Amino acid sequence: MGERLYRTREVAEILNISVSGVKKWIKEGKIRAIRVGRFWMIPESEVRRLLSGVKPSEVRAVIYARVSSHKQKKDGNLDRQIERLRSYCSAKGYKIIEVITDVASGLKEDRNGLQKLFDIVEKHQTDVIVVEFKDRLTRFGFDYLKRYFESHGVRVEVVEETEKGYMEELIEDFVSIVISFAARIYGKRSQKFRKIKKVVEKVIKDD
After folding, report:
1. Tens of pLDDT along 95-120?
2. Shared-domain flag, residues 100 and 178
3. Do both 97 and 145 map to the same domain?
4. Contact 84/67 with Cβ under 8 angstroms?
5. Same domain? 44 vs 95
6. 68 is catalytic
7. What is the pLDDT of residue 199?
8. What is the pTM of this model?
9. Which terminus of the chain has a smaller tally of CB atoms within 10 A, N or C?
10. What burial class does residue 108 get, using C-beta atoms within 10 Å of its C-beta: 0-12 exposed, 13-18 middle, 19+ buried?
11. How many domains does the chain have?
12. Per-residue confidence (pLDDT) for residue 86, from 0 to 100
């Protein structure tokens, strides 16, 4: 039988503090909680720890950084992204246990780094995932990924809400979509596919 889970209101009553106070501690990483649907649930072991007065352990953080192309990596975009995330974690007092990177489109679901991130989350080896922008993690479906990680007791913190620039990445993602669809419709070995691929790549190169 699994460990009992308490609602935030129940924990607030047990600790004699406000519900908003409990939620604030969860957001700050002072209370380990699991996202269940729309609610935060606190494991019984965590409630016992809070009652005993034991200080919360160090917040374990995983940095996830991504660029779409090797050109961006060569230009130093990936290194600068990691450095900014390291500074953020340092200011928050987080212990960085892993820095995961990908050089791939945010539309690609089988990225090696992303798969490694799933593995770490599922093994409960981190408390928070830190990304610079939402689309560093994924171009689409960010809220679904966030909810999945939260269901394993892991928060996702986005340093910047609005990304500036990266127009080159958006164009590259668009190209990958067009080429992918052409491959499915005509087949990668067809003359039609090769012609479409050549035209699209030429347009991007000449832009």
Report:
1. 999 999 999 888 788 899 999 999 99
2. no
3. yes
4. no
5. no
6. yes
7. 76
8. 0.63
9. N
10. middle
11. 3
12. 95
